[in-house]
Amino acid sequence: MFTPRSSRPRCLAPRRGAILILVAFVLPVLVIMMAFAIDVAWMQLAKTELRTATDAAARAGAKVLSVSQDQDAARAAAVDAASRNVVAGEGLALGVEDVQFGRSEQANSANRYVFTPASAGVINAVNVSGRRTSESLAGPVDLFFTRLVGVEHFEPTQEATSTILDRDICLVIDRSGSMGLDLSVIGDRNGQNCGPLDPNTRFAALNSAINGFLDELDRTFPEEQVALASYSSQFSTSCRGYSLNFQTADIRQRLTQDHSLIRAPMNTFMTRGIGGSTAIGEGLRRGITAITDPQRARPFAVKTIVLMTDGLHNSGIDPRTVAYEAAALDITVHTISFSAGADQARMRDVARTTGGQHYHADTAGDLNEVFREIARTLPVLLTK
Questions:
Q1: If DSSP states are collapsed to H, E and C, what string results for 49-101?
Q2: Segments of the chain assigned E as strands
Q3: In whole angstroms, what separates CA 166 from the centre of its chain?
Q4: Crossing angle of helices 280-291 and 319-328, rounded to 10°
Q5: Per-residue tens of pLDDT for the chain, all 384 residues
Q6: Distance in angstroms (rounded) separating the CA atoms of residues 41 and 159
Q7: How far apart are CA 71 and CA 60, in angstroms?
Q8: Contacts of 2 (CB under 8 A, 6+ apart)
Q9: Beta strands in 313-353 (DSSP E)
Q10: CA–CA dist 304, 336 (Å, integer)
Q11: Domain ranges, ordered by start, for the chain
Q12: Per the CATH hierarchy, to which homologous superfamily does domain 167-382 belong?
């Protein structure tokens, strides 16, 4: 019987050898791709670590610069911070030329800062060049498998600038009757009202501390504007031939770069006197008004209120409520409680709500140091 040709069974040739040839060709390609993938991942890790180390160095340098006003100390801090951050298996080594000082300013309305190196004048920024290149102290980053194609090293660079920001500050002070107490007295009852106030009163200690605060600001690089608000309660009394007539809270001086205008009303209190209850919340509200003054507040300055009391809140709105108003306006409130009878818990809550710090001072020396510390600790922003 005749079987058509198309219907005959075919004999399939063995293909096992062809697959082996294909595998032998593809496998080296896959190995090479995997090797390159490992090196690419290693390079990406090195870049990320370098950025972290450079940012940390710039921040550390700027923070020390803000406190010490010493460029050598700031450079040492930047170098130390870099060395404690690992890049490709070892701490980042910075040379003297890798840490520069200068002026960082906003170049346009998009909030972009531009750094300009400077050796004198107003210095408000630290610029760090993080390098793992053949010219750097640590050298380039060694690669693993790309050596096979002649690429032995990876040379990443990173730059970071930290800027010490300008501040608008409002000092909100307690002028209640207890501020006329002798420093040795524990409590919040009324003390001396009529001036001149004795030099051993709490208010005299406050006046000295604010003078120290302003002295510190005069030594710092940024230009700070300062306002002064005061509070007690509605208070009137006759004092040695003149009258004291206080509103619950007021703004004694609007924001100004002339710090003598802050010292003057403090000296007036010392001369004429103080008195009243303790309306801390109303004082904080006046501070908010002063720090957001549309005619004087600078749009890019950090807004800070320093709120102090020597006693217990006993009149008007609770300052913890007003603290939420400050926080909504991005105002940081640092609080100071002075004397053993001061309301530390409430003042701590106010600071915490706004992202500020609470400080307590038992003595005149403590109060002076607290104000100086706040003045020296300037806000720092990574601007590049």
A1: HHHHHHHHHHHHHHHHHHHHCCHHHHHHHHHHHHHCCEECCEECCCCHHHEEE
A2: 86-87, 90-91, 99-106, 113-117, 125-131, 141-142, 153-154, 157-164, 167-174, 225-231, 235-239, 242-246, 249-256, 302-309, 332-338, 358-361, 380-382
A3: 11
A4: 20
A5: 455 555 555 555 555 566 766 656 666 666 666 767 888 899 999 999 999 999 999 999 998 988 888 899 999 999 999 999 999 999 999 999 999 999 988 776 556 889 999 887 778 899 999 999 999 998 999 988 777 677 888 999 999 999 988 899 999 999 999 999 999 988 777 889 999 999 999 999 999 999 999 999 988 777 799 999 999 999 999 888 888 999 999 999 999 999 999 999 999 999 999 999 999 999 999 999 999 999 999 887 899 999 999 999 999 999 999 999 999 999 999 999 999 989 999 999 999 999 999 999 999 999 999 999 999 887 888 888
A6: 21
A7: 12
A8: none
A9: 332-338
A10: 13
A11: 22-164, 167-382
A12: von Willebrand factor, type A domain (3.40.50.410)
And the tokens for 383? Answer: 């601007």
Q: What's the predicted TM-score (pTM) here?
A: 0.75
